[in-house]
Design goal:
Blueprint (H helix, E strand, L loop, with lengths): L4 H27 L10 E4 L3 H18 L11 H7 L2 E5 L9 E8 L2 E9 L3 H15 L4 E5 L1 H10 L8 H8 L5 E5 L12 E6 L2 E8 L3
Parallel strand pairs: 4-5
Antiparallel strand pairs: 1-2, 2-3, 3-4, 5-8, 6-7, 7-8
Length: 214
């Protein structure tokens, strides 16, 4: 089937105009984000220009996420975040300019150790968080201590590997962290998952396990 030259030119022109419009729309959308881009993971370091703008937002998400368990022991105010956990992975996935997902940590041992995480509470942000954790903890160089529901999600739902070797656990945590090794969960939870230990945090003993490819 032959297409008249005039028709072909019109189709090419319309396609070019549509591409320009979409490009402009993307640029406007990205400018409306405090991160400068939407729907992408952004690595931020404390002290960066972006970090200074979004730190209060990240702290609010972390405080909300940890409120049911009495709050995060190390993150209460914006300054706490920068000093304790200077490395952040954040994302803006909705129409407003604020970040909606955040995972924060610091360099420790063989990679980046998880310090805290939080979302804006929406189902979309929670789903994005699950994908981000899987990406970071499986081949992404991140590791961390988890327990309870976060451990269940990481191990049973996301398939993130865990450390079941006592010597390796002690090496990762460092000599200054005193632990009691259990292997199996001390309360009989997580059948078949060996790698549990207890350590004192804030005057209370907590059962933990290390997740991540380390």
């Amino acid at each position: 089937m032959k297409i008249a030259v005039g028709v072909l030119r019109r189709l090419i022109k319309e396609a070019a105009i549509d591409t320009i419009r979409r490009s402009k729309s993307d640029r406007v959308s990205n400018r409306s984000s405090m991160l400068g881009v939407k729907n992408k993971d952004v690595n931020v370091t404390a002290g960066d220009k972006i970090a200074n703008k979004i730190e209060p937002e990240i702290v609010d998400m972390i405080k909300t996420a940890y409120e049911p368990i009495g709050g995060h022991p190390k993150v209460q105010n914006p300054g706490d975040l920068s000093s304790e956990y200077p490395n952040w992975v954040v994302a803006d996935i909705d129409d407003d300019p604020e970040p909606d997902v955040a995972i924060v940590g610091r360099h420790s041992g063989p990679g980046m150790k998880l310090g805290a995480s939080g979302t804006d509470g929406t189902s979309a942000a929670k789903a994005y968080m699950m994908k981000l954790k899987k990406k970071l903890f499986i081949g992404g160089g991140w590791w961390g201590e988890v327990s309870g529901a976060p451990a269940h999600i990481a191990i049973n739902k996301l398939g993130i590997p865990y450390v079941d070797n006592e010597e390796k656990v002690r090496q990762l945590l460092g000599a200054d962290k005193e632990i009691t090794w259990h292997g199996e969960h001390p309360q009989g939870q997580f059948k078949g998952v060996n790698g549990w230990y207890s350590r004192d945090i804030g005057g209370h003993s907590h059962a933990k396990i290390i997740i991540g490819e380390v």
